[in-house]
Every structure is written in structure tokens, then in C-alpha cells.
Specification:
This protein is of the alpha/beta class. The chain contains 10 helices and 17 strands. It has 2 domains: about 140 residues, Rossmann fold, CATH 3.40.50; about 190 residues, Response regulator (Rossmann fold). The strands form 4 sheets. It has a 7-stranded mixed beta sheet with strand order 12-10-9-8-6-7-17, sandwiched between helices. Strands 2-1-3-4-5-11 form a 6-stranded parallel beta sheet, with helices on both faces.
């Protein structure tokens, strides 16, 4: 006789069930409070891991996705490894629904988390905002450009990097490798952060070939592997010979490009193992340095609420928010020299990516001759256009 397999539950799931069926914290007939058993590598009963500060990270996908979530998870691991006094709790593959509110609440009430990093863009409104109002003593850090001073709670912060600087450099490499003068960009959604990457990539490529074009296909969501593969194959069929992407996991795009024999540049993390022949370089996050720095401030007692930590944290290559992936074997010495020159100018703040005259792809002048948007300009975080040379349309 075969017995049914017993389901396995995490400690957090068990405690949720107990909280739903009992009065959690109720004094028992023995005069002691109900508390969960320790496990899962996290502190039990909201005790904060003894004297340690509990910091929670929530990811919209798996931690080994070769992309967005892996980059954040590596940064979180660096914080825990480099900062004594930090206990890390994590939950992966949490959708941008009420599930993230449940995950945050559990980390606060069960694990005793005092700092949360819900890392996905769609977690912010309403989930982070609702929980931040309910738990004013907990700090919530969101990876994106959504925070508005005087509008959102004081215990909410925003951090993001000018990774379009790395995309600009990757565009230079792509243009040097392209024989057709046609690049491809597979993107999830036309939000400002994505549009900024598409446009910066194209502007970098235009420094090499002013007539180069970038074909954009929006898939509609952060993780749609079938559509990502279809888009990459479609571009290869059209004669596009270098592709890149802004989706949660570039794995499918990079592997499909390699199978089709075209070049690719990566995003979020280093995908070179996936395409040993065609991988040129990529725009990578460098969250390890940023998370370690924040962790050190947390254990010193610094908070958003006290004004010790800025509510909006931004930086680019110079601030170690991002970096360029190592060059692949197909990158020419000429391309490497061009990137080295541009990167040096970016580090010295001598190169401005967005300067006039600049038009969108409908012919509208965005920046007149002699004007420019520096990286700190709020207009860039509100981007809603594709520049001249980009083939595609911003929907919605």
C-alpha cells in the first residue's frame, strides 16, 4: 500500500495557520504565551534573532534566475556576511499581489523584522504603503523611483541606480559588433526605468553608428519565457544581429540568441555562462556594496525616520550601484577602447547621456540644442517616450 506523501510546510506557513486558528499570544492556562518553534534559519516568535537586527528580503521570482532576483539575493547575502549583527530572512517567488503583504506581515510579526526590502516594482502601491502605515517602526526600502517626499510615509525609502550608464556602455559594444546596424530589445513593460534603459542603450550605440536602430518588443510582464523566446526568434528572423533585454530573468533571451547564432548583451547579472560564444557584455547591478553600506547604518541605529538615512538613494557607476560585465571573446579591441573612454568620462561626470538636440521617435523635440538632463533630473525618472532611432511604441 502506498501512503500519500505528507506535505511540507515552512515554519512561517505553520505559524500563519496557528495565528488563523488560535488567538496568537493568548495567555494559556499555564500562564505562558503561545510561540512557534524555531526553524527555517530565522528567529522565532518575533524575538529579532536575539540581539541581531532582522532584515527581510522578498523577491518576485527565484533567487537563482540569472537576473533581477539573483542580483538582489547576492546583495542580501553580502549584507549578512559583511555586517555583524544582521539576521537575514528571505522569501522568493512572491507575486505582486496581496501575497507580498502577507509575506511582509509574517516577517514583521513572526520573525521580528525591523527592516524590509520588498524588491519588486509592483510591491510598492498599495502593499508597501499599507504595511508602512500599519507598522511605522519598521523601515521599508523599495527598489524603484516611486517615493515622493511629503506624500508617502516617513518609514519608506527608495533606492535605485543609474544602470542606464552601464546600458549606454553596452550599447557601444553592441554597435561595434553589429554588422546589420539593427539591434533588438526585449522589454517587459514601458515603465520609466525600462524606457530609460532602452533609450540609453540606443544613445550609446549611436555614438558608434548614428544610423543604428533598436527594435523594441514589449512582452507585457516581467517573466514570460515563451514570449521572450518568441521575440528573440522574431528578431533573429528579421536580421537583427545583437539583442538585449529588460525582463526579470534574461536567461531565455540569452540562451535563445546563442542558439540562433546572434550576439547578445545581458542585464541584472552576469549571463556569460549561458552564451559562451555570443555574450558581449552586460549591464549589471552591484547591490553588494549598497546593501552592505545600508546594513552597517542599520546596526548603528540609523533610520529613515530619524533622517539618518536619505529617503531617495541613487548612484551610478561611480557610486558602485552598477557595473559592466566582463567582455566576451567577440568584443574587439576597438570596442573595448571606446568603452574605456566613455566609462572614464561617466565616472568623472564629464559625459551627459541625455543632451540636445534630442527627439523622440515621432519627431517631437525632447531637448533643444544646448540643453541636457543630468542623471539626477527628476524628468528622467518620469520618462514616457522612446527616442529617435528606436522602433516601437509606448503603450498605455
Amino acid at each position: 500500500m502506498t501512503y500519500p506523501r505528507r506535505p511540507r510546510f515552512s515554519r512561517r506557513q505553520v505559524v500563519r495557520g496557528l495565528m488563523a486558528t488560535t488567538a496568537f499570544g493568548m495567555v494559556t492556562k499555564f500562564g505562558t504565551a503561545c510561540s512557534p518553534a524555531p526553524g527555517d534559519g530565522a528567529s522565532a516568535g518575533g524575538d529579532g534573532g536575539g540581539d541581531n537586527l532582522v532584515v527581510g528580503f522578498i523577491y518576485v521570482g527565484p533567487k537563482d534566475d540569472f537576473g533581477y532576483n539573483q542580483a538582489h539575493a547576492l546583495g542580501a547575502a553580502a549584507m549578512a556576511a559583511n555586517v555583524p549583527g544582521i539576521t537575514l530572512v528571505e522569501e522568493a517567488s512572491v507575486p505582486e499581489t496581496s501575497s507580498v503583504a502577507e509575506a511582509m506581515r509574517s516577517m514583521i510579526e513572526i520573525d521580528g523584522a525591523k527592516v524590509l526590502f520588498p524588491t519588486s516594482f509592483g510591491y510598492f502601491d498599495p502593499y508597501i504603503l499599507d504595511l508602512a502605515s500599519e507598522f511605522p517602526e519598521v523601515q521599508f526600502f523599495h527598489a524603484g523611483g516611486m517615493y515622493q517626499e511629503g506624500v508617502h510615509p516617513d518609514n519608506v525609502g527608495s533606492y535605485f541606480g543609474y544602470i542606464d550608464e552601464a546600458q549606454y556602455l553596452a550599447g557601444i559594444v553592441a554597435a561595434h559588433a553589429s554588422k546589420s546596424g539593427r539591434l533588438g530589445f526585449i522589454a517587459a513593460k514601458p515603465i520609466p526605468q525600462v524606457l530609460r534603459n532602452i533609450n540609453s542603450y540606443t544613445l550609446g550605440a549611436k555614438t558608434v553608428n548614428p544610423d543604428i536602430t533598436t527594435q523594441v518588443i514589449f512582452t507585457g510582464d516581467w517573466a514570460l519565457p515563451v514570449k521572450e523566446a518568441e521575440a528573440t526568434n522574431s528578431m533573429a528572423d528579421q536580421g537583427i544581429d545583437v539583442v538585449t533585454c529588460h525582463v526579470d530573468s534574461p536567461k531565455v533571451v540569452i540562451e535563445t540568441a546563442e542558439k540562433r547564432g546572434i550576439y547578445c548583451t545581458g542585464y541584472h547579472a552576469d549571463q556569460s555562462p549561458l552564451a559562451p560564444n555570443g555574450y558581449l557584455t552586460g549591464a549589471e547591478w552591484d547591490w553588494s556594496s549598497i546593501y552592505t553600506s545600508l546594513g552597517e547604518q542599520f546596526v548603528e541605529g540609523k533610520t529613515l525616520m530619524n533622517g539618518d538615512i536619505e529617503h531617495i538613494l541613487r548612484g551610478g557607476l561611480a557610486g558602485k550601484f552598477c557595473k559592466l560585465s566582463p567582455f566576451g571573446p567577440a568584443v574587439s579591441e576597438e570596442a573595448k577602447a571606446a568603452v574605456a573612454s566613455a566609462q572614464d568620462q561617466l565616472l568623472k561626470e564629464e559625459l551627459i547621456i541625455y543632451q540636445g538636440e534630442l527627439k523622440d521617435n515621432t519627431g517631437k523635440v525632447l531637448l533643444p540644442e544646448g540643453s541636457a538632463y543630468e542623471q539626477t533630473n527628476v524628468e528622467l525618472e518620469q520618462m514616457d517616450y522612446l527616442i529617435e532611432g528606436v522602433q516601437g511604441k509606448v503603450e498605455g
